[in-house]
Amino acid sequence: MAIFLTKESKVIVQGMTGATGMKHTKLMLGDGTNIVGGVNPRKAGTSVDFDGTSVPVFGSVAEAMEKTGADVSVLFVPPAFAKAAVVEAIDAEIPLAVVITEGIAVHDSAAFWAYAKAKGNKTRIIGPNCPGLITPGQSNAGIIPGDITKPGRIGLVSKSGTLTYQMMYELRDIGFSSAVGIGGDPVIGTTHIDALAAFEADPETELIVMIGEIGGDAEERAADFIKANVTKPVVGYVAGFTAPEGKTMGHAGAIVSGSSGTAQAKKEALEAAGVKVGKTPTETAKLARAILEG
């Protein structure tokens, strides 16, 4: 089983013909992702060859969906054009849009988030500024290296791309049902809570690892949700225990004001909900391993 992405998913790539899109389309194909098209209005009607696999280019998301039955779009569109690209995906009502792009203005992210909601949330947005998601052995939509781990029993949701990769590597012998990088911007689509609910409903996920970071209150809200709704064991890690107060660290959403948004406050909220929280990624992986092996 998996959440949001399976081997049946038909994936298109908005921005496929750019340098970054080309690079990661090739890697996704190598991981077995069923990529059925790219989107670039200026190159519609052409195709791109990836080591013998010919991928057609369409003029719009709607056309790509009509011709291929695509149900997932991965966006490698520059920040200035990302809002229009996401709105196009929402208008086409593609079920899943994975926005990899970093550096999108917060008001643009807020605008397309609100637009998706106004349109009935028919398009699930993951990101922006995220590594995407992977269901090992089935499909990879984004930039997560496909060879870190194998299919397994752990579900992972993370704000951080690099910590996603580290946790997958630390627990590679056990493996993952799905790993979802939700991004660390102040405004994102899919949240910790959305992923927790999906993993709770997935019969193949036995344990959930949740990685958060300083700033905002997403982890505290997730803790409340876990307490009320999640029966599976959850192990957590919060990045930023040594971050200085009032300084933005890494992600645009990772800013601490006074005691609000600190790693310690988030750790305490999660532990109050029954979540075991590690002080380092390695310690967190050991906690997960102990639960599964115990």
Descriptive report:
The structure is a single chain. 52% of the residues are buried. The protein has nine helices and 14 strands. It is 34% helix and 23% strand. By secondary structure, the protein is of the alpha/beta class. It folds into two domains: 11-126, Rossmann fold (3-Layer(aba) Sandwich); 148-293, 3-Layer(aba) Sandwich (Rossmann fold). The strands form two sheets. Strands 3-4-2-1-5-6-7 form a seven-stranded mixed beta sheet, with helices on both faces. It has a seven-stranded mixed beta sheet with strand order 9-8-11-10-12-13-14, with helices on both faces. The protein has helices spanning 19-30, 61-68, 79-91, 106-118, 161-170, 192-201, 218-229, 263-272, 281-293; strands spanning 11-14, 35-39, 47-50, 53-58, 72-75, 96-99, 124-126, 132-135, 139-142, 151-158, 176-181, 207-213, 234-239, 276-278. The radius of gyration is 19 Å and the shape is globular. It catalyses: GTP + succinate + CoA = succinyl-CoA + GDP + phosphate; succinate + ATP + CoA = succinyl-CoA + ADP + phosphate. This is Succinate--CoA ligase [ADP-forming] subunit alpha. GO terms for molecular function: succinate-CoA ligase (ADP-forming) activity. It comes from Streptomyces pyxinae. Keywords: Ligase, Nucleotide-binding, Tricarboxylic acid cycle.
